[in-house]
Amino acid sequence: MSVHKIKDGVFEVGAAHFDRRLFDELIPLPDGTTYNAYLVIGSEKTALIDTVDPEKREVLFENLESLGIERIDYVISQHAEQDHSGSIPFVLERFPMAKVVTNKKCKGFLKDLLHIEDDKFIEVDDGDTISLGNRTLQFIFTPWVHWPETMSTYLVEDKIMFTCDFFGSHYAGASIFVKDEAKVIEDAKRYYAEIMMPFRNQIKRNIEKLSSYEIDIIAPSHGSVYKNPEIIINAYRDWISERVENIVLIPYVSMHGSTERMVYYLVDRLVERGIDVKPCNLTVTDTGKLAMALVDAATVILASPQVLAGAHPKAVYAAFLMNALRPKTKNIGIIGSYGWGGRMAEQLSGLLTNIKAHVFEPLLIKGHPDEDAYRKLTELADKIKERHAELGLL
Ligand code: FEO
Fold first, then answer.
1. Ligand 1, closest atom to CA 221?
2. Domain presence at residue 368
3. How does pLDDT run across 269-291, given as a tens digit for each residue?
4. d(CA 35, ligand 1 centre) in Å
5. Is there a single domain that holds both residue 292 and residue 364?
6. Are residues 272 and 146 in the same domain?
7. Helix (H) or strand (E) holding 374
8. How far apart are CA 384 and CA 394, in angstroms?
9. For the chain, what is the domain count?
């Protein structure tokens, strides 16, 4: 249990989940996560902004008890995913007078997911406000960060923007405020890469929308709270921009060493040409690191051996994931080794159709690489260099 004071009358009362290691049964959490819930006490009404994952609801209730809270008037639901909404039914049970304040779309999701009764809701529109007496909450629709119903809440008098998943990070530490900026931005980049990257265009619109507000504090519902909002806003502006770095990401898997030899050779040729390379062995790399590398790598070369008549399943998984994350990568290619034929290149290409990038001719070799294979890899390195030069990266 711990309550974090954000300002007089504004507290973070959620829960840390230090030992959670997987989110959505998909996303690795090396530093755990937090479910931030914010209590805003006005002169007449009290509001709770988001709740916690139901597994941690007792922590929320202990925190509220430690503050002597006997009444909650409004539960603001910014996003229906259960890590923030899952404890709403328990809050309503504990505080029967409370109403759930949310938008129409979120209300629908909450009814579907949590079976909350219709008469428990107060529906708000984009820009609407509710008064807590001496404090005002304004609701700003920020769709697709992370679901279509997601909204932010602006505490007008205190200039605090509560953003739910937007600007969040999966990091559970002792302090709620940013201490080590570089570490927080690294965590936020991982979070962006895993969850937000497919929504770059919507994020751009949402940043523009929030920029019209004077913001002293950004308070997401995961990870650190920003007293210096520019650091996270500027990081996001960079990640969603078209700017890429002089980096080639090579996710690879190799069964008997042939594909690995190709990868190692290509790495050396690229480094010789002044290009940074991030080889990612798919049998040991955490998918969060792979996603982070996709945020700004100019080029991705996927390397796989052929298994039966297709690509290695780990390469298939990587291709599927990359395609879902829709990185701004400018060039993609496929290399690998096969024994007796198959459709690996077509199969992987078919999984990468969301990525609007220049596609290099696939380079597949039979068996272990020979002089001709190395010559072709050198040519591929030259082509990558050429493309990076055209992008102004060299
Ligand atoms: Fe933190 Fe989309 O839930």
1. 1
2. yes
3. 999 999 999 999 999 998 999 99
4. 9
5. yes
6. no
7. helix 371-390
8. 11
9. 2
User: How many angstroms separate the alpha carbon of residue 383 from the centre of ligand 1?
Assistant: 41
Whole-number Å distance, alpha carbon 81 to ligand 1 midpoint, is: 5
**What does DSSP assign to residue 135?**
-
Rounded to a whole number of angstroms, the CA Rg of the chain reads: 24
Same domain, 212 and 261: no
Which pLDDT belongs to residue 263?
98
Q: Whose CA is nearest to atom 1 of ligand 1?
A: 165
92 & 153 share domain? yes
Q: 188 CA distance to ligand 1 centroid (A)?
A: 14
**What are 122-153's pLDDT values in tens digits?**
999 999 999 999 999 999 999 999 999 999 99
Q: What is the pLDDT of residues 276-331, one digit of tens each?
A: 999 999 999 989 999 999 999 999 999 999 998 899 999 999 999 999 999 999 99
CATH of the domain at 288: 3.40.50.360
Q: How far apart are CA 32 and CA 304, in angstroms?
A: 32
Residue 120, domain member (yes or no)? yes
**Which protein residue has the closest C-alpha to ligand 1 atom 3?**
81
Atom of ligand 1 nearest to the CA of 165: 1
> How far is Cα 17 from Cα 39, in angstroms, rounded to an integer?
19
In the chain, the amino acid numbered 256 is H
Determine the distance separating the centroid of ligand 1 and the alpha carbon of 246, expressed in angstroms. 32
- Based on the domain organization, do 233 and 253 belong to the same domain? no
Angstrom distance (rounded) from CA 191 to CA 271 = 29
Q: What is the largest CA-CA distance in the chain?
A: 79
User: Which residues are near ligand 1 (CB < 6 Å)?
Assistant: 79, 81, 83-84, 146, 165, 222
Give CA separation, 204 vs 78, 105, 298, 314, 356, in Å: 19, 21, 20, 32, 19
d(CA 126, CA 50): 18
Rounded mean pLDDT of 200-215? 97
Domain that holds residue 331: 249-384
Query: In this predicted structure, what is the pLDDT of residue 1?
Result: 60
Q: How far is CA 309 from CA 254, 260, 262, 359, 367, in A?
A: 15, 19, 20, 22, 15
The answer on 56 and 17 residing in a single domain is yes
Q: Which residue has the higher pLDDT, 286 or 39?
A: 39
SS3 118: helix
* pLDDT of 341: 80
